[in-house]
Amino acid sequence: MQIEEIAREVVDSGYTVHTKLGPGLLESVYEVVLAKLLTGRGFSVERQKTVPIIFEGLRFDEGFRADLVVEGKLLVEIKSVENLIPVHGKQVLTYLRLLNLPLGLLMNFGAAIFRNGIKRIVNNHSDFESSSLRMHRPS
User: Which of 31, 43, 104, 132 is most buried, with most CB under 10 Å away?
Assistant: First the structure.
């Protein structure tokens, strides 16, 4: 399955979770429910995936954890805040670079309207022809 198809399914699943649970719960609740829903749809999902840092030939696994990685291709970072701030997008882009992944979704379940809480973050990804999501590049 192509990454854009995976992204569409993840957004659809996120919408389902947001619609049924509503905004305002802890990020960990949305993470576990979204992961379970995606697994039920046949996707492989890694939760709290270690994002290693390589510095001067040394590897550090203690640094970061990505909320979800779907099919080993798509990073999903989950927030539950009133408003996203620029550092959230920068965090996703950093994770994408460290994991060498092309595309990430920043999903804010704290937004009153789900579509207002979705941002695409791109890392050297050029296959946008099948994308139905808006692209967001952090400044």
Answer: 104
